[in-house]
What we know:
Blueprint: H1 15-35, E1 45-50, H2 56-80, E2 91-97, H3 103-112, E3 120-125, E4 138-144, H4 155-158, H5 177-201, E5 202-214, H6 229-246, H7 252-256, H8 267-275, E6 281-290, H9 296-299, H10 308-346, H11 349-358, E7 367-375
Parallel strand pairs: 1-2, 1-4, 2-3, 4-5
Antiparallel strand pairs: 5-7, 6-7
Amino acid sequence: MQQGSGEDSYARNSQPQQFLMENIIAPELLAALDNMTLTHSGKPIVVADLGCSSGLNTINNMNLILNRLKERFVTSAEVASDSTSTVLPDFQVFFNDLPSNDFNYLFQLLNEHRHSLDYFAAGVPGSFYGRLFPRSSVNVFFSSLCLHWMSKIPDDVLDKNSPAFNKGDMWMIRGRSEVGAAFKKQADLDLKLFLSARAEEMVPGGLLFMFFNGRGDSDPARQWPISSYSYEVWKCMNESWDSMVSQGHMTEEHRDAYNVPLYFRSLQEVREAISSCGSAFRIEKVMRRDTGGAKVSDLFPNIPPSELRKKTTLFMKSMHSPLVEAHIGKELATIYWQNFELRMLENKIDELILTMEKDPHYKQNSDINMVILIRS
Length: 376
């Protein structure tokens, strides 16, 4: 994610994630926290945010979780009428993301809000597709809109001699079945590794709450609904790479070496990964939520309609700029994003936004997979 607090930073362009959390996820999360087993053993209660990124969203999410856990301890003490149990345990929060994450900005925010944070905080850099914590040490794992990011691009997608070679495409925009199968294979392995690591790290009765982009289509190569708003925006991204080649800024080979490590799983794929863990988890809920009713103005509140295209551009830059710059450098990345803005204009994304604002039935966004597991 784009670091810092500038105009195109993730911290300033993560309103859609906040919207989903407040309007769809929070009630399910609070209910799950109420249903998990909590005991006052004298040890700290440990909560980990996997894929925390930076910005206020992660702090707000952790506050929501910690406040509910504290309420549960207070309520249980009142019911028991035991004055010795009214002393709350210590709470430890671990913020996890890749080492390239902007932990500096996150720690600055934590320091600014330290007077309202009643827990010990620490950063844990590393991939959540492997072990991060000691065995049986974490009470609550929370992962928000992260597990659709893969550990790597599938090798076959970058191999010119493979049927899955993704020539002329930055992702699965063209819906090629061989490419979809290659992404699915890697994503299946990733999720199994993720769940296996969490099974080792969680205390018995602990909660694993995660939600991430999903899909309703059975075909792995059809990640977005065709003609959806998100699909149209991604088409602009893909066409911008074509423009970089046609303008002479890069070769076709250099363009074909760029792919985005994303995969949106079906519920069946999620269930199969959980099944691979045997009896490690008890399934509380595995469900898909349709977020297609949200307007662009809902995702970016207080933004005039005339500015929503620009806001969408900043949103995409906040997530993809580091990947683009890593591939072609900062100077060419600037040209790439100029091409993207031009494609958004030429493809009449403004008109599409106005259509969506008037028609609540227009399919706009991907689905969300929500998974709630209890460690057996």
